[in-house]
């Protein structure tokens, strides 16, 4: 009878990247699928009319299931801004940031491509629905908000999101509840931000919808890339300076 304990090997780089790819696919497929087929406010016809609340819940739920499924493998980022923010905070390797961002973007693009295929076989096919699902200001803002409002809410909301991620994944946090806290935070933030910016907080999600959203979506895409990354960096720097002082205390 052997008393040798079972060891679990650390995930390989390929496993981590695959997990990020699938996790981002699930996130974009769930959120944008809800916008296209169930929300009722995008395109002006059909849908189950779940509205902003339904899309917010879809965002939170996709992150919860993705984080529980793939968090133990890749960390469950599914978002370039999160990967960059965690690297700034010293919680993630800078060498892995580039590959993570690449597969996150590809996973999001695959999701919207699959959704386009589903939409194209429907009775009311209109690729302009992807314009309505894209993030941005003025024409792309559901509430007609301008550039300043959209930039501010995307920056602040992503900063709050990263603060929560860093807090619930720290050594002081309760074990096993991080995905729930992160998902619920996204739901809350989306409820606030969807009327303003269509709630990005995630460059991969915005790139995926802009791909089929037309010229206006492409021209405004920079906001949904720059603002979330800026917010994540600000939160990471503040967290590192104010809360993550374990090395100084040990000294």
TrEMBL record:
It comes from the Bacteria. GO terms for cellular component: membrane. Its main location: membrane. The lineage of its organism: Bacteria, Bacillati, Actinomycetota, Actinomycetes, Micrococcales. It is found in: Membrane. InterPro entries: Aquaporin-like, Aquaporin_transptr, MIP, MIP_CS. This is Aquaporin Z. The chain crosses the membrane at residues 21-41, 48-71, 101-125, 145-166, 173-196, 216-239.
């Amino acid at each position: 009878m052997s008393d040798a304990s079972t060891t679990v090997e650390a995930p390989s780089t390929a496993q981590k990247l695959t997990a990020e790819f699938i996790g981002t696919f699930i996130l974009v497929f769930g959120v944008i699928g809800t916008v296209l087929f169930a929300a009722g406010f995008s395109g002006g016809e059909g849908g189950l009319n779940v509205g902003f609340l339904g899309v917010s819940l879809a965002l939170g739920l996709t992150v919860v299931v993705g984080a529980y499924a793939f968090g133990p493998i890749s960390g469950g980022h599914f978002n370039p801004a999160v990967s960059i923010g965690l690297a700034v905070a010293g919680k993630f390797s800078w060498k892995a940031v580039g590959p993570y961002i690449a597969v996150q973007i590809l996973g999001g693009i695959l999701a919207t491509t699959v959704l386009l295929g589903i939409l194209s076989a429907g009775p009311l096919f209109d690729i302009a629905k992807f314009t309505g699902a894209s993030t941005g200001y003025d024409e792309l803002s559901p509430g007609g908000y301008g550039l300043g409002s959209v930039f501010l809410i995307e920056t602040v909301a992503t900063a709050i999101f990263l603060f929560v991620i860093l807090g619930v994944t720290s050594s002081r946090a309760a074990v096993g509840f991080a995905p729930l806290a992160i998902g619920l935070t996204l739901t809350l933030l989306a409820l606030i931000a969807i009327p303003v910016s269509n709630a990005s907080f995630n460059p991969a999600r915005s790139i995926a919808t802009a791909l089929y959203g037309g010229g206006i979506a492409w021209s405004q895409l920079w906001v949904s890339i720059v603002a979330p990354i800026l917010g994540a960096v600000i939160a990471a720097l503040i967290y590192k300076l104010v809360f993550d002082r374990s090395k100084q205390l040990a000294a």
